[in-house]
Fold this sequence. Notes:
7 helices, 4-stranded parallel β-sheet, two-stranded antiparallel ribbon, alpha/beta, single chain, about 220 residues, 6 strands, Rossmann fold, about 15% strand
Amino acid sequence: MTGTTTTLCVRRATYWCPELKADDPAKKGICSNFLCDAKPGVELMLTGPSGKVMLIPEKDPTADLIMVATGTGIAPYRSFIRRLFVEKTPYGEVYKGLAWLFLGVANTDALLYDDEWQSVLKEYPNNFRLDYALSREQTNVDGGKMYIQDKVKEYADEVFERMDNGAHMYFCGLKGMMPGITRCSRASPPRRASPGRPSSRSGRRRASGTSRSTKCAASS
Length: 220
């Protein structure tokens, strides 16, 4: 990438009508279907970025970044990881923290950019960590489906210890993951933050929502 490239990860939003027993084209997602059906060469007008929600704390090269995503919520973290480990950036060259990615999808076939994550993991094993929650292939400690909140819960003590030591935690994807993670946070015993490293627990951000859909397609 040269700095003039924008990459999108799009889930095609459709609506399955129980009465028609088929997709109802009148209720499909306008934006996602337009993008998925667009042909090479089509010119698009983009706006943004807006706000300051998903930003890397580039003033602190030792900060741990804990990234939690479901489905296409992986998109902003792909840019994080590329900036840290793939592209030549000033922050990436001095980064000494841990970038920890949690990704929840239905099964192995639904994993996005796995080849990129494995490449980074191989080259930067001390600075990049990867955990998947595959709801149709894995089970949680109670024997139920493994959702992203269950995977985070497995590492709750370490996750919140890192946050108390100044880590930044990000959420992107379905809002449904948040109640479980919130309960996990409340169940984790409070710890004293290290001197000079204020706790980031109060600064965690709510997940961005996505529409429910029955079919998906990714384009980049």
